[in-house]
Amino acid sequence: MIVQPSSITGHTLAWLGLVGAALWSSVATAEPEPRPEPEVEPRAIARTDDAPNTADDAEVPEVERTPPWYVGVSSEQRATAIELYEAGNQLLEDALFAAAIAKYREARQHWNHPGIHYNLALAQVGIDRPLEAYRSILAALQHGPDALRAEQYKHALEYRRLLRHQIAEIVVTCNEPDAVVTLDGKPLLTGPGQVGTLMLPGKHQLVASKFNHISVSETVELIAGHKSNVELRLLSEDEATVHTRRWSPALPWAVVIVGGLIGGAGGVLQWQSNVTERRLSDLAPALCPYGCEVIPPSLNTLDRGARWRRNAAYASYATAGAALTTGAVLLYLNRARAVESPALQDLIQISLARDSNGGAGLVSVQLDF
């Protein structure tokens, strides 16, 4: 089953490019600024209802917490990341997007700073990689607005919304135990289970397989800005076939039985004809010892009856033979045949829904830049 796609105009992507061009000049110089690490381990200030409500208590300041992206990162790692980040910014300004992406990814290995993810997303938009850019924006926003400057955070939220409408979401459900489901040749899940993922719009191949079961292969066309819910079912080889006949099994046997009855009736008629002929042979010498020019009426009646029964027996044999032959042919034609089960037509169910989360899509983390 294929869900018909809607056309994706280049208007939104062009708009994204314009926005990116406007942002590069401001973002390229916005390197991640190191924050001083606290001299003591930060801790929260706890307060109970039993604590005295004094002015001194109210004025106790909270210790500043270390931002999550600083935890476990040495100053040397930060310095290396900033150097790579600045090199990526220069490449971004020169519209060398692929090279800038390489620098940002290398910088990210040293310091997983939200600002690096933000500029990485801009470079990925520049070479039309909306899915990768969307994931980078999610990473940039996962720590909230404190991780980025206010203007960057605002732009990141807009990028998240626009990019989400350039990609598609697919949610695959398979309740068959031990069934292996692949998407575009890559493992997706092992049943029973449900997995959702974001994909580029277009045609994608879903395959579900299990030992001694009929494999399911389906091309699903995903639409940008929509979610496709796909439910897969598998049938065993026995369940996938049903046995059917052309007619009721009783019909051919009824013809055979009728033919047998007619043949039996023919046998009775022939026996009666033989009995009559023997009787006629016994009476003829007594009634006509020297021969008869005119056959006596009694002998004539017996002779006619014998001949009628004999002819009727022959006709019965012919009819019975035809009926038995017909019954045999019907038995052959009505033998059980294995055909595909109608359930094979319902192994995959696809429903389509427009994204109703304002572009938030599959990932529920807060994206703040």
How is this structure best described in words?
The chain is of the alpha+beta class and 369 residues long. It folds into 3 domains: 11-35 and 67-164, Serine Threonine Protein Phosphatase 5, Tetratricopeptide repeat; 168-238 and 346-354, Immunoglobulin-like; 246-335. Helices cover 46% and strands 16% of the residues. Strand 2 and strand 3 form a beta hairpin. Helix 6 runs antiparallel to helix 7.
Q: Which percent range describes the beta-strand content?
A: 15-25%
Poorly predicted ranges (pLDDT <50, ≥5 residues)?
Answer: 1-16, 21-31, 33-63, 357-369
Strand order of the largest sheet: 4-1-7-10
- CATH architecture call of the largest domain: Alpha Horseshoe
The class by helix and strand makeup works out as: alpha+beta
List SSEs in N-to-C order.
HHHHHHHEEEEEEEEHHEE
Just give the CATH class of the largest domain. Mainly Alpha
Distance between the termini: 40 Å
Which of globular, elongated, flat, extended, rod-shaped describes the shape? rod-shaped
